[in-house]
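Quiz preparation item.
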């Protein structure tokens, strides 16, 4: 009886439906026997026989041996076992292990994958992680020899800062992620993009990072997923360009960075740049500054020649319409 009781309490929806049907058929069996004995007719006896046969058939269809029904205490022990499990290295984590971890840490369906380059406060370095929001916190489930999670109040997540050209040795980074594994296959696309550079007679490599307050560095390829979770959190590009450039040029340059890092799609980039250029063309100011800004954007390949020509013509038309409107008022 205990296994039936556990199945009714902790089984899946199908198991519960079958057991409820068994209970109803059993009650029908009792009622049929009572009515048949009391002289209500042979029909009730046949109904009782049919009910007990169906009961037996349904009970045989529930395979209790396939899934162990756990009482609350056993469930807690199972969750703790998942959380305490350690691995020789990250390549030992299987697909089933990942499913168990997501359940054990209550990772919600809106989670995303990111690669944490470093977070000194929690001792995290170059590790894949799941990221999600819940109950006013930003949660991370970090995968490693011993998976673990930490959470940060969303009130502390005030901005994301772009960190450009961090010099590195690619061969010394992300060693565990170079081994064939389930985790490797899932997180390969979130490894940093390295760029080869030359200066002072030497060659070296750099990577770009995004720093999430309060100090969590993630790879540039993770930023798109982070942005899905942290919509509305401002992005800061301090030090990327100095103040001698106009704010419009700096905005276009920042949008280009986001497109290169796949935070913005090509179409999103074009749409946002076009909106910015329209605002720039509508703004009253010195025409020469407008022309110079557009020329700089073309040289930096932030916009094409065709786009620049379109907005030059747009500004001229706007200026002509303003002149005509002024004459009509006179």
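Solution:
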């Amino acid at each position: 009886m205990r296994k039936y009781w556990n199945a009714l309490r902790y089984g899946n929806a199908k198991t519960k439906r079958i057991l409820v049907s068994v209970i109803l058929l059993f009650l029908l069996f009792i009622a049929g026997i009572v009515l048949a004995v009391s002289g209500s007719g042979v029909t009730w006896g046949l109904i009782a026989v049919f009910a007990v046969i169906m009961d037996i058939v349904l009970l045989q269809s529930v395979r209790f041996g396939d899934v162990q029904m756990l009482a609350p205490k056993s469930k807690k022990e199972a969750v703790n076992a998942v959380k305490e499990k350690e691995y020789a290295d990250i390549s030992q984590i299987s697909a089933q292990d990942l499913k168990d971890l997501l359940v054990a840490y209550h990772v919600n369906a809106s989670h995303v994958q990111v690669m944490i380059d470093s977070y000194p406060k929690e001792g995290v370095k170059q590790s894949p992680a799941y990221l999600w929001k819940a109950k006013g916190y930003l949660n991370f489930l970090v995968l490693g020899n011993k998976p673990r999670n930490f959470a940060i109040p969303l009130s502390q997540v005030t901005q994301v800062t772009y960190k450009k050209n961090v010099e590195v040795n690619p061969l010394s980074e992300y060693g565990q992620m170079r081994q064939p594994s389930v985790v490797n296959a899932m997180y390969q696309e979130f490894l940093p993009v390295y760029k080869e550079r030359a200066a002072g007679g030497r060659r070296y490599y750099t990577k770009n990072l995004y720093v999430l307050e309060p100090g969590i560095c993630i790879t540039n390829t993770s930023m798109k997923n982070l942005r899905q979770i942290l919509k509305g959190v401002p992005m800061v590009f301090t030090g990327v360009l100095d103040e001698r450039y106009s704010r419009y040029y700096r905005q276009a340059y920042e949008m280009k960075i986001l497109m290169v890092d796949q935070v913005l799609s090509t179409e999103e980039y074009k749409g946002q740049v076009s909106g910015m250029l329209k605002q720039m063309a509508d703004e009253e100011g010195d025409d020469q500054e407008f022309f110079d800004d557009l020329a700089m954007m073309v040289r930096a390949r932030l916009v094409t020649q065709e786009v620049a020509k379109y907005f030059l013509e747009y500004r001229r038309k706007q200026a002509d319409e303003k002149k005509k409107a002024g004459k009509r008022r006179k």
